[in-house]
Amino acid sequence: MKGLSFFNKIAYFFNLIFALVLLAACGVPYISLELFPFLSILSLGVPALVVVNGLFFLYWLLNQKWQALTSLFVLVFGYFTLGTFIKIAPKSVDFQEDELKVMTYNVRAFNRYHFLDNDNIPQEIENLVKQEKPDIISFQEVGHDMQVDYLDYPYHFLKRIPTGGKVHMAIFSKYPIINAEIINFPNSINNGSYADILYKKDTIRLYNLHMQSLGITPGTGVLRSQSSERLYRRVTNAFKRQQHQAQIIAEHKSKSPYKTLVCGDFNNTQFSSVYHTIKGDMQDTFIAKGSGYGRTYNFLKIPIRIDFIMADANFEVMAHKNYDNKYSDHFPVMASFRLKE
To answer: Tell me: the pLDDT tens digits for 224-250?
Structure first.
């Protein structure tokens, strides 16, 4: 570091640290979480790491220093390894009548516990559905007492689970559901489900997933009330369970005899092993047709994308939309498709 001032030497020291951390994050999707669960924490911070390295790159570039190459290298490497988290595309979304529209939304029990100062949340969500007119809706965290007549949809899958303190989910459809089942995640309050739906003389399978929660929801006091060691164990155990659940879904999905869609709350980002295990060679609708940042959740006031809609190669992704409606701690997402010939 010859030729650098004392301040620049300190700056480059921190630059190297952030560059190495981003480089480590690039390996998270390809590392076993059974062996290194703590590394998955890095997947939550990829956007912040990219921003910090981008600022270092600009700083060294403006000062005409070769140190700019350090962050430039990890940024380029990260782009080709992890992909982008920002899509430059028109924000206007035009859903067509002849497209299959699928919405996913973690509704957090329709504000039953009054996390939001709004007593009209169920009606607000119902109005959103009426306005956007999705053909299929996948809800997570609906509450054990949700009624099937909450929405005016002719078909639904809403199964109450009496044991295990499970978090309940629901699927509503305008098209006939011919078969549907819960996919149990052992030793977890979370679970998955699927529904086989008749659509245009064909059968499609829709997976509705709610992956293991990290248990550190902002605003609940968990971060303040627990020691760092206990919090670390809690998060790393959650990542291990997520990976096991992802493997259960990947195996189940591989045996699907039908054209397949996957949606839900993954409780992890697109930079995680969990995401890549479930996605496989499927299309991420945000990557295909989304725009902007695509955030679906604010974690510690940092916007991240943890709610996804995916489609196999039998579908053409036509549109994707992220909503800003604040009716839960998550934001709704909708995508539309056409079946390929």
So the answer is: 455 677 878 888 889 999 999 999 999
